[in-house]
């Protein structure tokens, strides 16, 4: 059985986490098998074409009003995922449903409509603002592009600046270089909110800010989310920030989803060895709990030629031969259908030696 | 933090809408800064004077620029009746210089304007869309780069035949590729910036992004480069006239005057260089003005 067979075996419509959510409340976003492989140039004599498997068949859903945190190392495909969701890059495969409607298909909603509903805040607050635009111009640009009259767009832009805590009387005419990092990121948030979206994708939106400003912007985001009833997809490499803001957390490794679960489950009883290592790598405020050895050794393997079977096996402390042969599917952990992980050690059927030993954890495949 | 946004968003929106304030757009700001720059204003005034003199030449010129007098050849500056002396055929230099501005300014400005327009469009399209579009446009441009600009101008003008219109056409063709290249390089540089991606994310179409985000960032570079070509264009037009591909000798034109006065350089050097000095002043003024324009388009202090 090769990778593909395993993937095909998994019925796409029945991912456990999302099934439950559909029952509770309809998911805003539903992503199935989203894939993006970037083509690299072939060799000089037309050698084998290489692909960077940036995002490889990931599936997840986001419920209305929740915050989904996406974490992972640099280069694991977090930002590519964000850009795929915004359709800033075209996916190779996979379907995206927004409120149950397909995106970009024949019957679905257009990319333009998608961008009415979903907006994004970028990491680099300076590069994501046009140096030649004032704050108001920048925020109103998208509105004007969507057909709002210029004066009305300016008025709405000023309202948005006020909403994110920038007094338009002071900041409306300021250029990006006249703003601090935190203020710039507020302008970026205002620009995204001006479109009146329902989902906001925050791609490392606070990572470049210093700690005190980061806290302010995070509070602002939490506040705005409640007032405007938004849904967040919060991408970050900072585990503490993700823990603070998220309801659920999705862990990515080398273009794959390795674990999805409620924030407390991920941080306290993670199923996947990678998630456990990631959580353990957080710095402690207590000097007596100093980390002596790195929880995960080595670097990410190359996404051009990822390891066979489980992609984490090259760095995994409990890897066995089965991990090399088969790619583990996402399976439910401890009977909680909201919590899924992709690890053979959690699956009785996999033949992994630790699977039987796992104390009390009843594991069932998603198709059950 | 919470104190900044205390009331509901509806109330906040209503409250801020009150103070009506004038918001300057980017271009208004540029104009304001430019008019406050003394060097730019001096250069602009000189250029305005030159243009006005050329437009109203028949009213200003003291004498007929084509009336020759064999007895009054190569008179020095300050000769009674001839303020700037006379040329090798005894024609009044001042009148000829005033009339010459008409053709020289057109020869300098028109091809560059056309080339800037075409080159910017080609370069921005190539830079913004990239890929195959870029390759097609830039490889065609590269063909033009294979020839020295003078040779290319001579070749095109020669193929089209003599005459001022053909000179304008050939100069426009000669100056389009370098401007295309500058526009392409500038566009490629900013096309991958996050703010372009953010604008796409807000649902803006490609033409709107080009006008709203690309143009504001590349115009200053293109304009600065293009204005430096104005002087070259005047001289190149003169060279074409010299080869018999442009204007015929009696015509008053700065470049052509330089050529016809050339043999007299040992007899009356000052008279000979006067048209050249005017070309120099014109191109320096355009250069400094474009410098000022670039500075005022630079938002950073």
Per DSSP E runs of 2 or more residues, the count of β-strands of chain B stands at 0
Mean pLDDT of chain A: 82
Q: What is the tally of helical segments of chain B?
A: 12
Helical amount of chain B: over 70%
β-sheet strand percentage of chain A? 15-25%
> Which architecture of chain B would the CATH scheme give at its second level?
Orthogonal Bundle
Main sheet properties of chain B: none
**Name given to the CATH homologous superfamily of chain B:** MetI-like
**Which secondary-structure class do the elements of chain A indicate?**
alpha/beta
Supply the number of helical segments of chain A.
14
Task: Work out the count of structural domains of chain B.
Answer: 1
- At the first level of CATH, the class of chain B is Mainly Alpha
Average predicted local confidence, pLDDT of chain B: 82
């Amino acid at each position: 059985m090769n990778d593909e067979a395993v993937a095909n075996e998994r019925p796409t419509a029945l991912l456990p986490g999302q099934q439950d959510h559909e029952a509770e409340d309809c998911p805003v976003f539903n992503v199935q098998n989203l894939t993006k492989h970037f083509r690299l140039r072939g060799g000089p004599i037309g050698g084998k074409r290489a692909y960077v498997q940036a995002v490889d068949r990931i599936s997840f859903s986001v419920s209305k009003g929740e915050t989904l945190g996406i974490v992972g190392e640099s280069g694991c495909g977090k930002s590519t995922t964000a850009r795929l969701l915004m359709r800033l890059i075209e996916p190779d495969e996979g379907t995206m449903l927004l409120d149950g409607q397909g995106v970009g298909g024949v019957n679905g909603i257009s990319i333009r409509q998608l961008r009415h509903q979903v907006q994004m805040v970028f990491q680099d607050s300076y590069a994501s603002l046009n140096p030649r635009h004032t704050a108001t111009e920048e925020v109103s640009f998208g509105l004007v592009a969507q057909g709002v009259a210029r004066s009305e767009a300016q008025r709405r832009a000023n309202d948005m600046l006020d909403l994110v805590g920038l007094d338009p009387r002071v900041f409306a005419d300021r250029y990006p270089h006249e703003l601090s990092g935190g203020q710039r990121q507020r302008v970026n948030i205002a620009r995204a909110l001006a479109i009146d979206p329902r989902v906001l994708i925050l791609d490392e939106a606070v990572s470049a800010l210093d700690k005190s400003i980061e806290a302010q912007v995070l509070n602002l985001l939490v506040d705005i989310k409640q007032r405007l009833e938004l849904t967040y997809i919060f991408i970050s490499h900072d585990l503490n920030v993700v823990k603070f803001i998220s309801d659920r957390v999705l862990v990515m490794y080398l273009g794959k989803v390795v674990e999805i679960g409620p924030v407390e489950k991920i941080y306290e009883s993670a199923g996947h060895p990678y998630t456990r290592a990631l959580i353990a790598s957080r710095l402690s405020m207590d000097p007596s709990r100093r980390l002596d050895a790195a929880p995960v050794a080595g670097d990410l393997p190359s996404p051009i030629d990822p390891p066979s079977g489980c992609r984490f096996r090259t760095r995994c402390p409990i890897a066995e031969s089965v991990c090399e042969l088969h790619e583990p599917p996402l399976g439910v952990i401890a009977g909680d259908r909201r919590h899924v992980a992709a690890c053979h050690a959690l699956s009785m059927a996999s033949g992994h030696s630790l699977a039987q030993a796992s104390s009390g954890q009843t594991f069932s495949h998603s198709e059950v | 933090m919470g104190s900044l946004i205390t009331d509901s968003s509806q109330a906040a929106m209503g409250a801020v809408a009150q103070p009506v304030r004038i918001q300057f757009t980017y271009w208004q700001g540029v104009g304001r800064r430019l008019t406050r720059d003394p060097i730019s204003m001096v250069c602009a005034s000189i250029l305005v004077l030159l243009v006005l003199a050329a437009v109203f030449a028949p009213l200003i010129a003291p004498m007929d620029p084509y009336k020759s007098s064999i007895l009054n050849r190569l008179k020095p500056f300050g000769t009674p009746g001839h303020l700037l002396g006379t040329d090798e055929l005894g024609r009044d230099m001042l009148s000829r210089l005033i009339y010459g501005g008409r053709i020289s300014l057109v020869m300098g400005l028109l091809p560059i304007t056309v080339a800037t327009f075409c080159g910017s469009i080609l370069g921005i399209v190539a830079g913004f869309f990239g890929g195959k579009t870029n390759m097609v446009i830039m490889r065609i441009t590269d063909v033009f780069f294979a020839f020295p600009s003078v040779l290319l101008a001579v070749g095109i003008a020669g193929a089209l035949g003599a005459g001022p219109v053909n000179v304008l056409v050939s100069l426009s063709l000669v100056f389009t590729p370098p401007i295309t290249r500058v526009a392409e390089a500038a566009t490629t540089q900013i096309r991958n910036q996050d703010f372009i991606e953010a604008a796409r994310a807000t649902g803006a179409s490609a033409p709107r992004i080009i006008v709203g985000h690309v143009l504001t960032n590349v115009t200053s570079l293109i304009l600065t480069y293009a204005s430096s070509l104005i002087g070259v264009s005047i001289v190149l037009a003169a060279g074409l006239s010299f080869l018999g591909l442009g204007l015929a000798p009696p015509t008053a034109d700065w470049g052509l005057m330089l050529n016809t006065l050339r043999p007299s350089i040992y007899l009356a050097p000052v008279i000979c260089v006067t048209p050249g000095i005017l070309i120099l002043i014109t191109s320096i003024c355009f250069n400094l003005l474009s410098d000022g324009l670039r500075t005022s388009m630079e938002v950073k202090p």
